[in-house]
């Protein structure tokens, strides 16, 4: 009963938080304008953006194989990529459960020990955090004036066309902070439990140190850069899908990308709510109307979330085919 309650809370609370923030953002939005914007989308740039999104997941799967190789663990490339698809789709249901689910996939289909694969994920997350820091420093330094305007206005005083009141902005910040604190407390609790299992921790540490023994360090670095380049291009190319955003510079795209990447730390499904808040607020500062910014955030986030869900379904189907073929 307690386990069911925990799973329910971990599923419903992030969802409710995301819905609440989205309601505050789109409370006065005229959704009839979405149809007109959808008809104006440049499908070529939308398709190219989607390809970059898929490639980012593929590269992450390939990179994971490099992390596991020093441990003598060599999962199939296809299974490794499918595990990434499943992980991102799982995060839509229960935020942050993806890391566990991708390890489970490798254990079930390639007999990769769960603890060791989980250890390599810690290393990956540390490196990805470093990448976010480097990209953030670059974006902020190149768009310092706009960044200062965003910090000064978001949630404190709204731009002239902003859809947020000061009270609404503060409410979003407060709810997001509470959600992050809840997530941290949950992680600390889980880590305390893991420390009781000495054998598990030993294997976990072995996986964590795997990169030190990696022979293809440069390939790992190239694939890491490739992952984040694809992430950025998936987002940036969406500018060219709409007439109102096609004139925004690559530097504006970099700042928006960073803001969105940081916003998804808040444990809501795929960052829904905080991501919209950050992107809309900054687009307004670049001169995009609040209506157009809201349309952009809603369509881009929805389509990218749909892509993640479809890739997850595709991966589960392909894994089932693989399981059946293995039995035969």
Model description:
- With 328 residues, this protein is mostly helical.
- 77% of the residues lie in helices and 0% in strands.
- It has 13 helices and no strands.
- It has helices spanning 2-26, 33-40, 43-68, 77-93, 98-110, 114-142, 144-153, 166-194, 198-208, 217-236, 250-263, 274-285, 290-327.
- α6 crosses α11.
- The longest helix is centred in the last third of the chain and has 38 residues, at 290-327.
- It is globular and about 55 Å long.
> How many distinct helices?
13
Order of helices and strands: HHHHHHHHHHHHH
Structural class: mainly alpha
Radius of gyration: 21 Å
Major β-sheet annotation: none
Strand percentage lies at under 5%
Report the count of strand segments.
Answer: 0
Can you give the mean pLDDT?
81
Uncertain ranges:
155-165
Can you give the helix content as a percent range? over 70%
Descriptive tags:
mainly alpha, single chain, globular, 328 residues, 13 helices
Q: Which SSEs are present, and which pair or pack?
A:
Elements lengths: L1 H25 L6 H8 L2 H26 L8 H17 L4 H13 L3 H29 L1 H10 L12 H29 L3 H11 L8 H20 L13 H14 L10 H12 L4 H38 L1
Helix pairs in contact: 1-8, 3-4, 3-10, 4-5, 4-13, 5-6, 6-9, 6-11, 11-12, 12-13
Task: Describe the structure concisely.
The protein has helices at 2-26, 33-40, 43-68, 77-93, 98-110, 114-142, 144-153, 166-194, 198-208, 217-236, 250-263, 274-285, 290-327. The relative contact order is 0.16.
